[in-house]
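The records we work with from here on pair a chain with its fold. A complete example follows; check for yourself that the lines match position by position.
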Amino acid sequence: MDKETEPPREPLRFKPREFERLNAEPAPEGAGKPPTVAGAQEGAPVESPKTVFEILRQNATRDTAGGWYRTKAGPDKARRRRHMVFWSTLLAVDVPLALLAWFSGHSDPVPFVLAIAAMAFFTGRITWLTWFLRTD
């Protein structure tokens, strides 16, 4: 492009340091004054009422008293069934593949490698689905 047809460049500048508050609520009266405690002497330092740990401890005590942490163990049937299906399927698939690898390993390497690969893939997949990807 010619220098005459180029659009004028805008000068670079930093973004504003504070956010624009478009819908800011008006500050309540006395918002700029420091907090005071009833009965405290003027000029005396005002202690913060609580630390974070005290607030968390108080919340935990209130929740425990309200019964939020009392839970009953649910029925264990689904977990037991999932484990039974895992072990029976693992035995039903891996034992024949292991026998195939054992009996053909000395004569031909292809069935041996394929059987070992199939065992590794199947065992990894069913272990992931049973123990790590729980959907019940």
